[in-house]
């Protein structure tokens, strides 16, 4: 995982996402892992825009909503998740495609991590 004071690499973001999808991590644990970079005030500038975007996604995958008030969403909690497991997996696929497009657009070699 990322070293304190450094931004995670894409491979680390993807690893946390995949571990969450197979049940090795809860959505709340993935949120907590991403939180320092998403909410942190003194984390510096992201070293990779797409890793930063992946962290934003991870940060929000634990959102829950009460069926009685579906427009009010919160991080974690006992209510149902806003996104289904299929939607979480689809967002990972979407992010990976966007990473490839980003690298192609800026004529960068694919990030190794």
Task: Explain how this protein is built.
The protein has 113 residues and is mainly alpha-helical. 51% of the residues lie in helices and 10% in strands. The chain has four helices and two strands. Helix 1 packs antiparallel against helix 4, helix 2 (27-39) crosses helix 3 and helix 3 (49-60) runs antiparallel to helix 4. The mean pLDDT is 89.
Structural key phrases:
mainly alpha; 10% strand; 113 residues; 4 helices; 51% helix; two-stranded antiparallel sheet
List the uncertain runs.
Answer: none
Largest sheet: 2 strands, antiparallel
The value of Rg in angstroms is 15 Å
Query: What is the rounded distance between the termini?
Result: 11 Å
- Give the strand order of the largest sheet, numbering strands 1, 2, ... along the chain: 1-2
**Total beta strand runs:** 2
Shape: globular
What is the N-to-C succession of helices and strands?
A: HHHEEH
SSE map:
Blueprint lengths: L9 H12 L5 H13 L9 H12 L2 E4 L2 E7 L9 H21 L8
Antiparallel strand pairs: 1-2
Helix pairs in contact: 1-2, 1-3, 1-4, 2-3, 3-4
Task: Explain briefly what this protein structure is.
The chain is mainly α and 113 residues long. The chain has 4 helices and 2 strands. A hairpin with a 2-residue loop joins strand 1 and strand 2 (69-75).
């Amino acid at each position: 995982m990322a070293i304190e004071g450094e931004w995670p690499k894409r491979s680390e973001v993807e690893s946390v996402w995949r571990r969450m999808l197979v049940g090795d991590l809860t959505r709340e644990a993935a949120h907590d892992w991403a939180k320092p970079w998403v909410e942190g005030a003194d984390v510096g500038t992201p070293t990779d825009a797409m890793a930063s975007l992946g962290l934003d996604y991870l940060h929000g995958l634990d959102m829950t909503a009460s069926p009685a008030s579906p427009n009010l969403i919160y991080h974690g909690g006992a209510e149902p998740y806003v996104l289904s497991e299929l939607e979480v997996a689809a967002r990972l696929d979407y992010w990976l495609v966007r990473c490839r497009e980003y690298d192609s657009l800026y004529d960068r070699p694919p990030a190794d991590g």
